[in-house]
Structures are given as C-alpha cells and as structure tokens.
C-alpha cells in the first residue's frame, strides 16, 4: 500500500468546544490560529465534552479522555454549562466534573486574565481612562477546592458548609508569578483579599505577599480589600497594573473587569501551568450563553484572544502578537449598531493574519 | 434636695463614633436626628470604642459595655478600623471583636443596604439609568462566622482555612425578609450566589429561595451568579429591585453598588434584627478612612441616611422621610467642585428638617 507521508505536526492542540456558544466561538479561534501558523503546525484533536454529551451518554470526563488531554501541548476550551432550563443537569456537575477538574488536575495555578480597553470597544464607564491590567487569579485552591458538605440535607435543619483551603505553597507560587509579571509590565502589583474578615487565609496571603515583595524591591505594591477593589474597578480602573488574588475573588473581579473594558465578549483567559507538567488551557471568560447558542450571533473575539494567549504560552509570541493586532484593528473598525455573524468576525481576523 | 424632673425619653440611642472619620460623621447624623425629632425624644449615650480605645486600654468591647448596648433601642455606628500604619492593631481585631461581634451577638441577620442614584450625585457610569434597589445581605452566617484556622502557622507548610457556615434557619429568615421587601417595592427579587461552584451552600440557598418563592407568587424572581451580578451592576443596574445574597457576596456587591450610585460617601446601611430581640445598628457602608480623619472633609451623608434608616426602623417613618427629602434636596444643590465642611453639611440638613 502507499502511505501518504504528512510532516509531523509541531504540537498537539486539544479543542473542547463545550456547550452553548462554546463550539461556535472555538471554531473561529481555531480558524485564526491555523491561519496565523499556517497548516501542519498543530495536530488538532476535537473533544466532545459538556452538557450535551452528558445528557447523551451520562459521561462528564472519562479517565481515558483525561489521560489523552494530558498529552496535548495546549487545550482550547469554549464554555461548558447547560441551559438554565435543563433541570436534568445537576448544579455544578460540569463545572466541578469538567472545567474545575481540568484546572485542578492539570495544576493550573495561574489563572491569567488580562483586561484592556481597546479603541473601538465601549466601556460602560463615563471616563474609563486607559485600562490595561492583568489579574493573576489563583486557580487551584480557596473555595474552589470542593471541600464542604451538607448535614441533615433537605431538612429544615440543614447545615451547608464550604471550606476555603489555602496553602503556603499554593499562595507563594502564584504570588511569585504575579511579581514576575509586574516586573515585565509597569511594576505595580495589588493584592486583593479580605484579610480583616478572613483572618486565617488573609493572614497567609499577606505574609507571603510581603515576603516575596522583599525580593522584588522594584515592584510597587499595595493592598485592597475585595469590596474596595470593586469600587476602584468602577471608578479608577487605570490605577491597576497587575492584581493577584484568590480563586473566588478573582472570579468576581475579572467579570467586573471584563464589563468595564467593553464586555465579557472580549475577555480572554489562560489557565496556566507555568512549569508545563500538564497542558495549559485557554478559554474565554464568558459562559456558554445557551440563550444565543447556534445562532451565529456570539462574538468570538474572547475565544480568538484566548487563542493568542495560547500561542504566546507555547512560545509563539510573534503569531500571538499578530492576532492581537488583527483583533485590535477589527475592534477599531466595528461600528456600533452593526453586527456580523460569528464566522464573519473569525473570517475577517483570519484573513488579516493569514 | 430639689430634683430636676426631666421628661422621660422615648428611646435610648447608643452612639459609637468609632475610629477615623467615624466620630465626625456620626456627630452630624446625631445632629440631624435630634433636629428632626426635637429634644428629649432620645436618651443618647456615647460609647468610646474602636482602635483608639484599644490602643489606650487594651479593651475592644468589654462585656459590661456589650450588656449596656443591648438595652438600647437602637445603635448608631460610625466606623471602626485603625490607620493602615497602625501595626500594633492586629488584622481583624476590631472587625471581629467589635463590628462583627455586635452583628452576630445582636442577631442582625438582615443587613439592609439601599442603593439609589439621586439627582445631583454623579455615577461613574455613562448611562446609569434609574438606579433604585436594595440589597438584603445576610448578616450572621457564611464566611463571616469566624470558623477556620491555621495549621503549621508561619511555616512554609502553613495551611489556612476559612469555613462558610450556612443554615436552613439562617437562610430562610433572610430570604423571607427579602421577599416581603420585594412585595412592598416593585415586586422583583434576585438571588445572588455562586451555586455552580459552592454547591453545598448554593444548593441550600436555591432550595429555600424556591420554597419561599412559592408563597409569594406575585414576586418575579431570578438568579445570578455573583460574578455575573457585578457585570449587571456595571452595565444595567436599573434591572434590580431587591437582591438577596449571602454575607460575603453582599459585602462585595454593596460596595460596587455604592460606587455606581455616586460613591461610598452616600451609602447607608442597617444591621437589622427584625424581631427586636436585640437593638438594630445603623452605619454608613464606608470605613474609617483614617487618611482624611479629623479634617472635617468627610461627607456625613451616608451616616445621616443611616440615621433615617434608624428612625424608620423605630417606627418614626415620617421623620425618616423628612431626612431623606432634606438629603435629596441637599444633594441636588451640590455643585461639583465645591466642598463644604463635614459640619456644614450636617448643619444644612439639620436646618432643613428642624
Ligand atoms: C463556570 C465557573 C465554574 C467559572 C469559575 O467560577 O471559575 C467561570 O465563572 C470562570 O470565571 O471561569
Ligand atoms: C469592616 C468590614 C468587617 C465590613 C464587612 O466586611 O462587613 C465592611 O466592609 C462592611 O461592609 O460593613
């Protein structure tokens, strides 16, 4: 027989479209990635995971799939989450069983969420100023551990607990990462916590933050309680350069940050394992938006920018930069009131980088 | 001997000025309360509590003071919290030992935080719309319980935990209160939580919310994850009427709500014990702002509005309404760029209600 010899790809890209608008926006991110790298660079493997698969097969994330994903060089994820009406999907099933499972198993301790107000995107703030900061959200600890439980479930005497677990190891590694990023940026790092109430976790975060700060005398540091941080995000977001915070606070303030920089449709993120012991995973901050799914009206920009973060992580900085530039140009061209189909946005950006 | 017979006051008002700007703004709230009720209605007792007292005496809240406070009809609080430089005050000492101690001991399970954009106050949002909602924040449970601890403290292997405790009793009573408020307002109630991650606590909150909702068919309900709620607060705050949420989420979103309605200088709150088994306590949402303390530049409006909430709670609705009207008129008159001393603002509002 005659074998078709295909040049070996440089890297494996696992793609999990997920639910709702996830597959649509991910398709555009893949289109742009393949346009900028040219063909043959990535071996792409698509994984059918999410609410739809669970409803069909009862499987969330089989061990064999997990093992396969672990061999990828990077993962691109759309979004997971069933439609609100889907009462057959237990709350948290996909979050805990898929998204958080990957973040925890692959030790994605740096959840990287840049916030930048690009020309052409509209902030809800009257006077947003120049917004350009990055949130380093811890990704493997805190209230996201899944510790906690229920006593006397379903009775009038139910007690439900949630336990936030914070370790010196976990806090130190993410704080170090944040300091390094601050050095590479404008040299300012803000710790966000709530140490006046969460004295145990807050004490640990503060102590480690101060210890590591001593090694980075060039970085200007400050501290904000999470409640005060939301005020500054709404009134003076240009004050921030790098923010480091725990898993839950990071979840909350990055949605707010996305809102003030023109919306969740633009916010990208990376779940990064800096040592590369497992693949890192890149995803838009937005959810599966089941209400608009399948209609080609979702904005794929966040997914495309997540693709740029992915390339950057794999050391392909020039290509990442090309995507960012093309997105910035595309955003600047957008006219309020006009809309393009999801694929049209992807086509335009792919053409610009192709 | 000749006794001076003074008519008996109708109620006892305990006043805790506290730290930083607390005493200054509280003095104006007292001034306005006494102007609107006329003399002799309240027996006022001032309590010297807070960082300054602790630094002087080592006492945070002696049991005897606690017992006395418990006999008051209502408490007016300024703010507690030492200056950031005061390294002799351990983090959380005053919060846990004073503010939260009172909230918990006096069973202030309804932490009431109205948000209203008044004419004349400036929102950072370009298009804020008509903002008028109230957050019913749970006040006696969740991560504020003070459960948690530290293992191997101060070592590189430290583990710090925080436990969120949620009970059916605690959730149900605050949810009921929120439904009742929604009925008395525009009939809309939003539950804010994060049940896709905090499945134990979130499950309890959702189940009870749905159970109580069945008794209030006239109330339109919806649910938002806390991260999504911050987006709506920044992009469409007029969608809210009543929000009910847990202690920590309530802390975070009410600061954001204050920001979008013109700033923390205007946000009032009530720590309410609806059954009246202990006195309720009213305080501005802002903190002690040690950086501007003693300079008569703090805005006393939040404290004055908290005074109105206090009167309302004591059944003196007409007087509360008078204060609110005077504040609204005062706000409408304020000219951006001009400033008045703290006491001048109080004088103006006191004169208007006097
Ligand atoms: C879907 C959910 C579990 C997730 C989170 O809370 O981390 C999402 O909100 C995010 O920010 O990525
Ligand atoms: C001072 C602090 C303990 C308090 C809280 O977190 O409740 C404050 O932020 C508030 O909102 O009243």
UniProtKB/TrEMBL annotation, chains A, B:
A molecular function GO annotation: magnesium ion binding
Highest taxon above the source species: Bacteria
InterPro entries named in the record: ICDH/IPMDH (IPR050501), IsoCit/isopropylmalate_DH_CS (IPR019818), IsoPropMal-DH-like_dom (IPR024084)
Gene3D superfamilies per record: Isopropylmalate Dehydrogenase
Protein keywords: Manganese, Metal-binding, NAD, Oxidoreductase
Name the UniProt record assigns to this protein: 3-isopropylmalate dehydrogenase
Xref: SMART domains: Iso_dh (SM01329)
């Amino acid at each position: 027989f005659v074998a078709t010899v295909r040049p070996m790809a440089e890297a494996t890209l696992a793609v999990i479209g997920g639910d709702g608008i996830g597959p649509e926006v991910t398709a555009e991110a893949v289109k742009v990635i393949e346009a900028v790298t040219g063909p043959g660079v990535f071996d792409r493997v698509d994984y059918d995971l999410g609410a739809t698969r669970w409803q069909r097969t009862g499987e969330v994330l089989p061990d064999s799939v997990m093992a396969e994903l672990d061999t990828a060089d990077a993962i691109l994820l759309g979004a997971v989450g069933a439609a609100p009406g889907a009462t057959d999907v237990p709350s948290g099933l996909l979050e805990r069983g898929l998204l958080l499972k990957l973040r925890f198993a692959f030790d994605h301790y740096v959840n990287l969420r840049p916030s930048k107000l690009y020309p052409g995107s509209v902030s809800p703030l009257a006077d947003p100023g120049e917004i350009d900061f990055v949130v380093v959200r811890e990704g493997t600890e805190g209230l996201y551990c899944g510790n906690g439980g229920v006593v006397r479930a379903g009775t009038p005497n139910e007690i439900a607990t949630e336990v936030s677990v914070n370790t010196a190891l976990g806090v130190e590694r993410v704080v170090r990462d944040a300091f390094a990023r601050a050095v590479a940026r404008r040299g300012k790092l803000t710790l966000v916590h709530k140490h006046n109430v969460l004295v145990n976790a807050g004490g640990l975060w503060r102590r480690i933050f101060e210890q590591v700060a001593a090694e980075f005398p060039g970085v200007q540091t400050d501290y904000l309680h999470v409640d005060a941080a939301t005020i500054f995000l709404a009134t003076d977001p240009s004050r921030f350069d790098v923010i480091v915070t725990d898993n839950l606070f990071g979840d909350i303030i990055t949605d707010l940050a996305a809102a003030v920089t023109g919306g969740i449709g633009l916010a990208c993120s990376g779940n990064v394992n800096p040592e590369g012991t497992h693949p890192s995973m890149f995803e838009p901050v937005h959810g599966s938006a089941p209400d608009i799914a399948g209609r080609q009206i979702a904005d794929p920009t966040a997914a495309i920018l997540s693709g740029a973060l992915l390339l950057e992580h794999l050391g392909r900085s020039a290509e990442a930069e090309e995507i960012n530039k093309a997105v910035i140009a595309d955003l600047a061209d957008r006219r309020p009131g006009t809309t393009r189909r999801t694929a049209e946005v992807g086509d335009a950006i792919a053409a610009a980088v192709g």
